[in-house]
Design brief:
Blueprint: H1 3-11, H2 31-40, H3 42-45, E1 76-78, E2 90-97, E3 104-109, E4 127-132, E5 152-156, E6 162-167, E7 176-179, E8 181-182, E9 186-187, E10 194-197, E11 225-229, H4 231-234, H5 255-258, E12 276-278, H6 293-304, E13 307-312, E14 319-324, H7 330-338, H8 350-359, E15 363-365
Parallel strand pairs: 2-5, 2-14, 3-7, 11-13
Antiparallel strand pairs: 1-15, 3-4, 5-6, 6-8, 6-9, 11-14, 12-13, 12-15
Helix pairs in contact: 1-2
Length: 391
């Protein structure tokens, strides 16, 4: 075949990237032209844009502990978490403010801490820092859940990178707020390991269940979660481990006096503050006989990613860490979407029976280390896509 004939045949072919239907009826005259055409087909897929991740909704690098799936080499040890007896389900709310262009709000020191006889809204000391927080966002005893919630705040600063974290945050007035403990800054685009969960000093934004997640149309949860369990029953302590493990850098200040003091199940040394808890790979989600769809979605996330133990509930309940932002609040969105409350006192509803099934089937990923995040090996799920750079 002459080269000029090949060129003519090739030019007469339909564009494979925009008109593939015509290919089924097109009559090829030259076999070489067909070969060239087929070689060009893979280029069509290269035209697709790379998916980018919104750092305001799922922050930190793809290899952060908050985004790394469980690996095929994970070694599981049953945590044997004892059943909750005082309520069926609770939350620990992370206050997440991603509005770096808002005017700065002053945050002052309050010494109320977790003392129920004191008022967190009262200013006891000087200015801690100023941050861009909407004046309309109120976090007070009139709006928060419980008497003295952990109330960890993660707020993005005007540079669009720095995340400041503090707890227990309160904002009872439009023009000022209070808190007590401040933690090291992290970069929204970095690994984001640490922050304002005081029991473990792990992040108050990474791993949080967000308001746009766990809806009937949102699909699977694509990151690690965070949970709290009752320390006196379920968090191991001894003089060697001090009650914590990587990535936690400490346990509660009262750990020696309270962790495991009311334990009735067998000792599980591996279940300490900072443990990565997961439903093991070999366990069928169907075998749990879950009654509600949101529980099934959480179960799949617990198997694919797991959940870090970040705090003590301090009473005999379990909790999942959820968000509260100036725009939305997870617990409100959940009730709108599913028709029942995420927080439930009763131990015997479909939802709380499901929570019992999930928490009592959690295992510690015992080989979760800085070198083998999630246990190492092939990840169960593809790593999170690259982050979109916000401007």
């Amino acid at each position: 075949m002459e080269q000029t004939s090949l060129h003519k045949a090739f030019r007469s072919l339909p564009d494979p990237c925009i008109n593939r239907k015509k290919l089924h009826t097109f009559k090829f005259n030259y076999i070489n032209a067909v070969i060239v055409f087929l070689l060009l087909l893979p280029a069509c897929s290269d035209n697709k844009k790379t998916e980018l991740r919104d750092p305001y909704l799922q922050p930190f690098s793809s290899t952060s502990i908050w985004n790394t799936p469980i690996g095929s080499n994970a070694k599981y040890v049953h945590a044997q978490i004892e059943p909750a007896t005082e309520a069926g389900m609770t939350v620990d709310e992370d206050l997440i403010v991603m509005s770096p262009k808002e005017p700065l709000l002053d945050i002052y020191r309050s010494d109320a801490s977790w003392d129920r006889t004191k008022d967190r809204c009262h200013i006891d000391g000087g200015l801690m820092f100023s941050a861009p927080i909407p004046r309309s966002f109120f976090v007070s005893k009139d709006t928060w859940d419980g008497a003295t919630p952990n109330s960890g705040l993660a707020v993005l600063m005007p540079d669009g990178h720095t995340v400041k974290q503090t707890q227990p945050f309160a904002k009872c007035d439009a023009d000022k707020a209070t808190s007590l403990f401040q933690f090291d800054d992290v970069d929204l685009y970095g690994d984001g390991t640490y922050g304002a969960h005081g029991g473990s000093q792990l992040s108050a934004i990474g791993g949080t269940l967000r308001s746009n997640e766990l809806t009937p149309t949102s699909g699977p949860i694509k990151h690690v979660l965070k949970v709290n369990i009752f320390g006196r029953k379920n968090i191991y302590y001894d003089d060697e481990t001090k009650g914590y493990r990587w990535p936690a850098i400490h346990a509660d200040g009262y750990a020696a006096e309270q962790y495991y003091k009311d334990r009735t199940y067998p000792v599980v040394r591996e279940c300490r503050m900072g443990a990565l808890l997961a439903i093991p790979a070999w366990m069928s989600i169907d075998s749990l006989k879950l009654e509600t769809e949101p529980a099934r979605i959480i179960a799949q996330a617990l198997q694919n990613y797991g959940a870090y133990l970040v705090d003590d509930t301090a009473w005999n309940v379990w909790a999942i860490v959820t968000d509260w932002t100036p725009e939305k609040r997870f617990i409100n969105e959940f009730k709108k979407n599913w028709g029942f409350s995420f927080i439930e006192n009763s131990l015997d509803t479909p939802w709380t029976r499901d929570m019992r099934r999930l928490f009592t089937n959690l295992y510690v990923v015992d080989n979760n280390t800085p070198q083998t995040i999630g246990g190492g090996g092939a990840p169960r799920i593809a790593l999170a896509p690259p982050l979109q750079i916000k401007k």
